[in-house]
Automatic annotation (TrEMBL):
Residues 212-474 form the G-protein coupled receptors family 2 profile domain. It comes from the Eukaryota. Its main location: membrane. Keywords: Cell membrane, Disulfide bond, G-protein coupled receptor, Glycoprotein, Membrane, Receptor, Signal, Transducer, Transmembrane, Transmembrane helix. This is G-protein coupled receptors family 2 profile 2 domain-containing protein. It comes from Musca domestica. It is a multi-pass membrane protein. SUPFAM superfamilies: Methuselah ectodomain.
Length: 510
């Protein structure tokens, strides 16, 4: 077991290093495209009189468009130049090269006629909320590109907008702040002024939520409606709640319920949260979902421990001490990971490329960025690998025991109790969460979308499956009948009712 833990830690470190040492040296919106520029002999570039060292150049195999929609493209060089972190000026984005304007009819860039002016100044909003006139090419470093295939000029009558000093486009009537990925500026003729002025172009603000998001959200709410009675049954029945494995299961279900509720609220609510509220909601959701995964690892360890020791503990002082240790580990580790996420998000020492993104554009981890693997999918992959190893170990143990008919008879009850739990957990939690991680890994490949819509929905409704497999059992229904109707039903194996004394010691099977 020590070797397994060591290998898992080694895998975690390797994954983190792989992410950290990737091709990209900074977030996409801090870069400029160097495809049309030739490097010097030493690998450096000159861009708008800025000498860019080779160390600041990376190969990007995608482009970000409106609202960070990722589009795969052939690898091309981009350089980190925007913002103080790269010792440069903030960036704005032009739709076309200087001296050109974007024609919405031909959907292409065209040269400004010679008899018209080429704008270079515009009014921006300063940090003190005062309007000031600046020279765009002196104040900012400009990028060039469109936010989508068919951008539209913002209406001068219906839209209230300002360019901020950091290059962000603020659209007041939409309560939106768009970075340079989601807008561009183009010269446009103003009849009232009789000259060209800079006007922002962006893409339609789609208010409809994706079908998959709606499906998963209502699937989670359906899960919660089944998870709550599952927890209630386990707390209500003494024979269930005083079993150590069931105590751990209850903690997992509680964590999953709170996590699902928060994610559903984020997806389904029409309310707009400020930065602080959005961040708090996201961190709470992260804490409980991480706790759910950690409790899975605790449950797998407990099952592995039982198989190794070949003992079955009901409710002894030793089992209670172990549960306290498990609780400190699970809740404490989740709190530590949440604290790391909070510090990383708020720290000025961490590049935006490696920040989780909670509270910035979404109230949850920004799963459009690979950094989500560092804080959520990566650690959870390690936990699921541990669960899979436990499953294989127990399966091999079962096979060896079956070869000895005498041992099989002596330990039949013990193995049946543990194996049924393990198989259910692995099929329900292991496979569904593994598919969720795979869905994240291939999120930029549309050909897999339909398949993972189905698997994500299965993961969202796992509360229903948990209720069926852990509550709708003959043993549990018999206990409920015995408690409320005074009926006692006896059976065999997993379906039998075994009443244990709370004073009984652990049974060592030999």
């Amino acid at each position: 077991m020590t070797r397994i833990i060591f290998l898992l830690l080694l895998l975690a470190i390797s994954s983190a290093l792989a992410i950290r040492t990737g091709k990209e040296k900074c977030p996409f919106n801090d870069t400029v495209d160097l495809s049309n520029y030739m490097p010097y002999d030493n690998g450096s570039y000159s861009y708008q009189n800025i000498i860019i060292p080779k160390a600041n150049v990376s190969i990007y195999e995608y482009r970000l468009e409106f609202l960070d929609t990722r589009r795969p493209v052939p690898g091309h060089p981009r350089a980190c130049v925007c913002g103080p972190r790269h010792h440069g000026k903030y960036c704005i984005k032009l739709c076309c090269e200087p001296g050109e304007f974007y024609n919405e009819t031909s959907l292409s860039c065209m040269e400004i006629p010679r008899y018209q002016n080429v704008p270079s100044e515009m009014t921006i909003m300063a940090e003190d909320y005062e309007q000031k006139l600046v020279n765009v090419f002196q104040k900012f470093t400009y990028q060039v590109g469109l936010p989508c295939d068919k951008p539209k000029v913002l209406s001068s009558d219906l839209d209230t907008w300002d360019i901020l000093e950091d290059g962000t486009l603020m659209i007041s009537n939409y309560d939106a702040h768009l970075d340079t990925v989601s807008y561009c500026l183009t010269p446009k003729w103003d009849d009232s002024l009789n000259l060209n002025v800079f006007m922002p172009m962006s893409c339609p603000m789609k208010s409809e939520v994706q079908f998959s998001t709606i499906l998963n959200t209502y699937g989670m709410l359906l899960s919660v409606s089944f998870l709550v009675p599952t927890i209630a049954v386990h707390l209500l029945l003494k024979e269930l709640r005083e079993n150590l494995k069931n105590k751990i299961l209850i903690c997992y279900l509680l964590s999953l319920t709170v996590g699902y509720l928060i994610i559903s609220m984020i997806n389904i609510t029409q309310a707009r949260f400020d930065f602080v509220s959005c961040s708090i909601i996201g961190y709470i959701g992260y804490y409980f979902l991480m706790a759910a995964f950690v409790w899975i690892s605790v449950l797998c360890f407990e099952l592995w421990y039982n198989f190794k020791a070949q003992s079955y503990e009901f409710c002894t002082s030793r089992c209670l001490r172990r549960f306290k240790i498990y609780s400190m580990y699970a809740w404490g580790l989740s709190a530590l990971m949440t604290a790391i996420v909070v510090w990383t998000q708020l720290s000025d020492y961490v590049d935006d490329l490696y920040k989780p993104g909670i509270g910035i554009k979404v109230c949850w981890l920004d799963t459009r960025k690979w950094s989500a693997a560092l804080y959520f999918y990566g650690p959870n992959t390690i936990i699921l690998i541990f669960s899979a190893i436990t499953f294989v170990y127990v399966t091999m143990k079962m096979y060896r025991m079956r070869c000895d008919s005498i041992t099989k008879i002596q330990k039949q009850s013990f193995f049946q109790e543990n194996v049924v739990i393990l198989v259910r957990l692995f099929l329900l939690m292991g496979i569904t969460w593994i598919m969720d991680i795979l869905s994240f890994c291939v999120r930029n490949y549309p050909q897999f979308d339909m398949f993972f819509v189905l698997t994500d929905f299965c993961n969202a409704i796992q509360g229903v499956l948990i209720f069926i497999l852990f509550v709708m059992r003959r043993k549990v229904t018999s206990l409920l009948k015995a408690k409320f109707l005074g009926k006692t039903v006896k059976g065999n194996g997993d379906d039998s009712i075994q009443f244990h004394s709370t004073l009984s010691m652990s049974t060592k099977v030999t």
